Amino acid sequence: MKQKIKKAFPGLTKWVQNVKKIRDYRYRKNSTLEQKRKILEDTYMERIGVPLDLDNPKRYTEKIQWTKLYGITEQMSLLSDKYRVREWVKKTIGTEYLLPLITVVKSFDEINFASLPEKFVIKSNNSSGWNIIVKDKLKLNLKDVRKKMNFWQRTNYAYYSVLEMQYESIAPLFLIEEYTTDHNDELNDYKFLCFDGIPYFCWVDTGRFAHHTRTVYDMDWVRQPWSQVYDPKEVYIEKPQNFKKMKELATILCKGFKHVRVDLYNVDGKIYFGEMTFTNGNGFDRIVPDQYDEILGGYFKIDNLE
Question: Span 203-221, mean pLDDT?
Fold first, then answer.
């Protein structure tokens, strides 16, 4: 019966999904603390497959859920803002590590597309993954860009993403950055998983625009037996020649935080800051094998619980 309905009304499934998204978004936005707990418990069971214990979290992903409800600070919100964090990075490690910024605007209507280069990137400052990568300006569908930016502007990502509360108070802006890749047209991403101001692991994201892989190494560049979401690259990834410098920068940036993921790009030897991530994978990305979820949780110390 469901298949017949889908054939008769091909757009119905998408419409129903959109209605559900709107309903869920509004419910999260107006929920009490107890309702938020229930939302996280239900979503955690659905995504991770085990009960969520917010009173005595042990797993890494559990402790991220605890942080979302009880551990977000004003500084976390400031550093999650992709525009305001640039000033902090400038003061902390220097301007040379910032991706080149063309301009920042409040809305689509403020963009002068004629003045932009052939390639560029549009980023929302108050979200994760809300980006538009433009490789050929002449092929850009401005109607679609306007639609996306308008949606991002009126949507609070904290509730869209299932309660990543560090984004709740960030006023929306849009960064337009230079299109930056290496000689292979790649933007290899080195994500340092840090606990108590110390980087312990670094995973390498490759093939971001095609065959996305994720491979985890420790600080001695020994490959680890776990990953998150994406399968690891089958071949060995060479340690960057300036890895020592990357580790040094990550150590400076993660200082004072019980847990943060410091993202750095390495473009043909040039290091750029990516972002500070306090709720890695929203706490819903599975750690594989599952036993490493609890092993990583042992690194993540929460004062109120320990």
Answer: 81
Q: Is 151 helix (H, G, I), strand (E, B) or coil?
A: helix
- The span from the CA of 28 to the CA of 33, in Å, is 10
- pLDDT, tens only, 20-32: 889 999 999 999 9
Q: How far apart are CA 206 and CA 208, in angstroms?
A: 5
| Spatial distance between the Cα atoms of 105 and 116, rounded to a whole number of angstroms | 13
Question: How does pLDDT run across 5-58, given as a tens digit for each residue?
Answer: 455 545 555 666 778 889 999 999 999 999 999 999 999 999 999 999 999 999
Mean pLDDT, the chain, rounded, equals 92
Return d(Cα 253, Cα 272) in angstroms, integer: 13
- For residues 65 and 46, the answer to whether their CB atoms sit within 8 Å is no
Range of lowest pLDDT (211-215, 232-236, 263-267): 232-236
CA within 13 Å, CB half, 100: 10
